[in-house]
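User: I'm putting together a teaching handout on how sequence relates to shape, and I'd like one worked example. Could you take U3 small nucleolar RNA-associated protein 11 from Vanrija humicola, show the sequence you're using, and then write out its predicted structure as tokens right after it?

Assistant: Happy to. First the sequence, then the structure tokens directly below it.
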Amino acid sequence: MVNAARKNLMSRRNHKERAQPLHRRKLGLLEKHKDYVHRARDYKSKKDRIKTLREKAAFRNKDEFYWGMVKGKTKDGVAIADRGNEALSIDVVKLLKTQDIGYIKVQIAQDEKKILRLRAELEVSAPVAGPSSEWTAASELAEVEKLAEMGVVIRPEQAKRKGKGKAPAQGHVVFADGREEYLGWLAPPETKKKRKGKAPVAVVEEDEDDEEDRTEEARVSRSQHSLELCILTQQEHRMELLGNLSALLGRVRLLRQAEARLETTKGLMGKGGARKVRQAGFVEDENAPEDRNGDRKKFVGKQWKWKLERRK
């Protein structure tokens, strides 16, 4: 035992596997004995399977018949069997279609409420147009609705930021040492560029009237700058509301199309003869936008007509 433990504690040489010679590198890795065993077993199993198939083909009965062959099908030599799935009855499918239509109607009602709220907010927050201006909030909403009917969705330039936090303020924070430096930073950017480009000027004593005029100019410039920032923020908020309104209008349009298709499918599944009046395709429409060929056309779906029946 002592000798065996001492033998295990002694350092041994690590026997490495022999590599492929350089002049035979193109043949890949050098095959070891375990690799040969796997390859030989695979080769022999394939050989035995081919032998068994040949024996079955040689001794098969040409008059062999099973009743399963009557309904059985094969595709590329593979048998296709029935999974046992039962087709739903027409009444069950009609019930499911009715539930789908009800869900779509609920979604349309919710989206229409959101659209009404957005329209009211846009009308309230609309900027006041001048007497000579043809632009009004109503005309803007009408333009958005017209684009939504054509399938065009307005997307504002600034994308929404993911997460619950607020968007970071643009620019950088500057810590001023005093009130004068703070007032200097509040001045419009044109004044700053002019200040940076000028050479240092010697300080000259001025009268109190000149100082008051300079203070008044700085106050006016600050008020103008804050007014411009307020207008810019209002415009960005309004563009975001218009984008949301456009997306909701497009969503309602698609939902109404889905509702019409489900109603048609449900009607075709019911009683009564129906015939196709019009195939799906493009028809002329004066309200549609012009295409590259100058034609005004829009795509319409299939149109069906049901036979008149007297119902109790």
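A couple of points you could highlight for students: Residues 160 and 167 are 9 Å apart (CA to CA). Confidence is low (pLDDT under 50) at residues 157-169, 192-206.
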